[in-house]
Amino acid sequence: MKLHTLALISVLQLSLIAAEKINPRHLHAKRQLPSNSVASSPPPTPAPPPPATSSSAAPPPPPGTPAPPPAATTTSPAAVPPSPSSVVSVDPSPGVTTPLNTVPPLATFTGVPPLADISLGMATRPVPPVTAVFTPGATPPISGAPVLPTALALGTWPPQDRVPPTDSAEVQRWMKELDGFNVPALSPTINGSCLLDPANAANAASRGWWTCGGYTRDTDITACPDKYTWGVSFDDGPSPYSAWFQYVIDYLAEKDLSATFFVVGSRVIERPNLLIEEYMAGHEISVHTWSHSPLTSLTTEQIVAELGWTRKAIKTVLGVTPTTMRPPYGDIDDRVRAISLAMGMVPIMWTNSPSGGKFDTNDWRVAGGLVNGTDSFNTFQSILGNATLLDTGFIVLQHDLFEISVDLAVGYTLNAALNHQPKFTLKAIGECQKFPAGNLYLETNKNETFPFRNSTSGGVDVSGDGTIDTKSGDGGSTTASAGFINSIPFLTSVTAIALAAMGISL
Ligand SMILES: [Zn+2]
């Protein structure tokens, strides 16, 4: 009975997640941090405070809302129908010139279930053993990068999965990075929602609001330049399914591929070892905010806090600072762009086809129980066919937070690309841009024109301690006081909830 109750709650949680794409906040908001948690701040409660800008916009997200308010845990999942604007629109143009693939072969090692069986409620695979652990002080695969910190002093962090407070000394120092840079005086949107905010949606073109019309700017990275090239990315981790359980990392290694991982700061401080494994395996690491909130809905100070704390978390764990970021839900406008660029981070989106179809694997819809793997994959195949119409390559949205989305990735979508005719080449996003790997981190970047530096090009204060962090691989000032943190708490928290949602007990 207890399990059924938990399962029901979890199903509702996952349904909510589906409506807003994969969002770790709702799972983690209900979690109690273990005593050995790396976070020194109090554990989040189920009712996180809404950001100042959305406190008056707390109603449940209506259809068309790509992102909920942070207080969405108070929202009845039943009141959150699938979001039409989030539903991938299959490009209706008749330009698919090659036959769509049938179900591709499975990866050779993973035991991925049949496509039709991938759905909410599916049985899960056995947990494989941990196969890779990197030692503190190890040398990363990027030339000139500092060695891994010899120990982690994780220190104090804002509460996980909430918009960080803006009155901290760190945020106030990071705000100085905007000095002398033109941040447009655009009002925050209401929840990053086109339907909740029709006034701003009507001006989406002028404010460059991606959410309502897919508007981008030249400073956005939206595609790989070479035709038939797929920019591979995984969002919302660090996830055990990528690193701890090795599904994604092993698959990529087997295929000799690299990917870009857009990581959430709240997960980074919780699972530093997983981030290290991704980084040390040669994959690219990028910023995906602290609380996974829709950035256009936040004040400028809140956006700075979201980016700053995530940037600092990655630097603390890896010793390097990403020069790129991806806004959750793709929710970006000219104000968010300006702030990101001023802080030294270039936005990376995912590709829209000329007729508006998004290169979205739909994995978040399967994890939420809205569709099964077959439905999702068929939709994705149709979209993939349209890649042949592009003059460029493309960047695909994909997630690694849940086993379902990882199953789709390593069993189907990536294989579909590798088996496609004409053949696609899969690369990490920086790699497909032909950036030297060092460009992707402040400490190793020798490129004076990337990340499109501006008046803050004299350096940024990643730690927020009042000192400017320089380039040339100085490795920062990570100090030793604590050992590496075991990431096992995941097994007793998110996995338990997810397995319960699937009717499986641990
Ligand atoms: Zn995300």
Automatic annotation (TrEMBL):
It is an enzyme of class 3 (hydrolase). Residues 85-94 have a biased composition (Low complexity). GO terms for cellular component: plasma membrane; side of membrane. Its main location: membrane. The keyword Cell membrane applies. Residues 228-427 form the NodB homology domain. GO terms for biological process: cell wall organization; chitin catabolic process; fungal-type cell wall biogenesis; polysaccharide catabolic process. Residues 1-19 form the signal peptide. Residues 31-94 are annotated as: Disordered. Its EC number is 3.5.1.41. It is found in: Cell membrane; Secreted, Cell wall. It catalyses: [(1->4)-N-acetyl-beta-D-glucosaminyl](n) + n H2O = chitosan + n acetate. Residues 41-71 have a biased composition (Pro residues). Keywords: Carbohydrate metabolism, Cell membrane, Cell wall, Cell wall biogenesis/degradation, Chitin degradation, Cobalt, Glycoprotein, GPI-anchor, Hydrolase, Lipoprotein, Membrane, Metal-binding, Polysaccharide degradation, Secreted, Signal. Its cofactor is Co(2+). GO terms for molecular function: chitin deacetylase activity; metal ion binding. InterPro entries: Glyco_hydro/deAcase_b/a-brl, NODB_dom, Polysacc_deacetylase_ArnD. It is a lipid-anchor; GPI-anchor. Belongs to the polysaccharide deacetylase family. PANTHER family: CHITIN DEACETYLASE 1-RELATED, GLYCOSYL TRANSFERASE-RELATED. This is chitin deacetylase. It comes from Hebeloma cylindrosporum.
